[in-house]
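Section 4.2 – Deliverable D4.2 (structural model, holo form)

The reporting period included a commitment to supply a predicted holo structure for the target in complex with zinc ion. Inputs used:
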Amino acid sequence: MNNAFTVDLEDWYHVCNVEELSDPSLWDSYESRVVRNTETVLALLREYRVKATFFVLGYIAHKEPGLIRTIRKEGHEIATHGFYHRRVFEMTEDEFEEDMGRSIEIISSITGERVIGFRAPEWSIRKHTPWALDILRKLGILYDSSMVPLTRMGERDYPLYPVKFNTRYGDIWEFPLTTMRLFLENLPFTGGLPLRMTPYFYIVSKIKIMNRKGHPAIVYIHPWEIDSERPKIELPLSRRFMHYFNLKSTSQKIRGLLEHLSFAPVRDVLGITA
Ligand SMILES: [Zn+2]
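Output (structure tokens):
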């Protein structure tokens, strides 16, 4: 069974909820490391012959169109991560539509293809943003991967596995973040800080058990997670932990997963043919 391998394509300073980093007019003054880091990710995927989905930030596509073309040329799926890396619940309905429209436009103008997938920065679709799926579908998005069935990071009763939702504009797939049941909670373990904290054998065996039950898992990385030399920034303690804890383990664990499991882009795992 194929699992989904995904990359959130953004630079090291795209951190939510940190005042100093939230002003896009300052972003051009930061050192850009996204091309080099993404090339490392691409080399890794090439080595294991895995095709993935890249959720590309519109801002990065605008700055580095050549990088997006390279990713597409290597056979990966290009989806979107919004334009300015704003969390959905921080935007009004209109702001979300504008940010999404802008990102879809720039990305599809580079690839010449329709953009059908979306992942929200920090999994930020919530119950109080019920308009989000409607807007996504209205803009031609056919699958979303932004829900986490966990209190605080998402909503406790979000789906555990891929499911179709109805919107005013037609059906849309949701591929929620993969979680495992532990201490009465659904805990993530297939990307970011949770992947770095969970022992490797545990991650693989949990995914294999899921696959045997007929459920695909979704794995994700950020290019900055494999960059041990990126600039250090002052972050609140919780974010510092999230962004720096045990970064070295990411590459090793990702290599193991690429070797021991089967992966494909999200659209193929969901069987979307558009
Ligand atoms: Zn992000």
